[in-house]
Design goal:
The protein is of the alpha+beta class. The protein contains six helices and four strands; from the N terminus they run H-H-H-E-E-H-H-H-E-E. A hairpin with a 5-residue loop joins strand 3 (149-155) and strand 4. Helix 2 (41-63) packs parallel to helix 6 (127-144). It is globular. This is Trafficking protein particle complex subunit 6B.
Length: 171
Amino acid sequence: MALPPQSTSTTAPPDELPLELLHGELIFSGILLSKDKEGDINELLSKLEFIGFSTGYRLIERLLKDSTRFKDELDTIKFICKDFWVAIYKKQIDNLRTNHQGTYVLQDNCFKLLSKISATKQYLEHGPKFLAFTCGIIRGALSNLGISSVVVAEISTMPTCRFHITIQRAT
């Protein structure tokens, strides 16, 4: 007798589920560890960002293994907004702005990792925990492409978020 197929309680397609589950577990484990150690929230955010950095650094290598390098910084950021974001989140960034002096703002109007949580004030306070990993992914990808940067996330209203990228220039 054959067993009926298992159904999942989530609406995410099967190829998106591993990332969502991994991300959720990273956040949950980090919160539990920080409660046990009574640690600093900055330490938790730093760890999540480092895990994201390592992930982004390796992922960009796989995506660009047979490609040529980009001609300039703006082309690299456009690649992050389009192809790289699609590879991770199955959609493009909704808006890219720049001041043409090394500052870029990437806006995602329905960020997948925020769309699954409530828009209440309680969860808005936990927003940085949900975005630290992705900030690290962006910074790691750019680092592998030879661009040193600082990436900071901002949540205006759930699930919209902005990633502010500031390129670090050698002086």
